[in-house]
Each structure stands twice: as C-alpha cells, then as structure tokens.
Automatic annotation (TrEMBL):
Domain of life: Bacteria
Natural source organism: Oceanomicrobium pacificus
Signal peptide as annotated in the record: none
Residue stretches making up the ABM domain: 1-70
Pfam families noted in UniProt: ABM
Protein name (record): ABM domain-containing protein
Length: 98
C-alpha cells in the first residue's frame, strides 16, 4: 500500500472559501474514489488557518495512477481549487504494517 500525504497552503483571504471546498467537494470526492483504502482529512487549525492536508492510503500504484495519472508526483486539481491554493506538497511512502 502507498501512503500519499497531500498538503496545501491556501492564498491569504481564501481560507473560508477553501474550507467550504474542502468539506463539500474534496472530502466527498476522495471518499468515493476507488483504490483509497483510508482517508484522513486534516482541516486548518487556529494556529495555521491556511494549511489543509489529506493522508490517503492507496491500495496500490495502479489505483493511485488511475486517479492522478502516470506521474504520481502530480497533483489532482479541481478547477475550483486552483485559484485558492498558493502551494502544494505531495509525498509518498510505503505503508508499514503495525
């Protein structure tokens, strides 16, 4: 399994709009995406109001590539999200069973 950590920093002044997008669009989209075995959405906190993240556990590389394309370092960007986000970070890890 592959753990994908996707973090965004929202543009100043876009926090409320992104919060709505995150809860109303992004989370339901990821919950409905085949191949996602676990989803941990992280909403902004008072001490970091412009930062949101997803920790996703994907079944396998094929599932992840079916969603983002051949280049797994690429972000899957919804058009509504593009103008709100200043920065994105994506990291991948092999999930270690406990």
């Amino acid at each position: 399994m592959i753990m994908r950590i996707f973090q965004v920093e929202v543009r100043p002044g876009k926090e409320a709009a992104f919060r709505r997008f995150f809860h109303d669009t992004a989370i339901p989209l990821m919950q409905a995406t085949g191949g996602v075995e676990m989803l941990l959405p992280g909403a902004a906190r008072d001490d970091s109001p412009r930062h949101f993240s997803f920790v996703m556990v994907w079944r396998d590389l094929d599932s992840l590539q079916a969603f983002v394309g051949e280049d797994i370092e690429a972000a899957h960007i919804d058009p509504a999200e593009a103008e709100m986000v200043a920065r994105r970070t994506i990291r991948h890890y092999d999930l270690v069973a406990l």
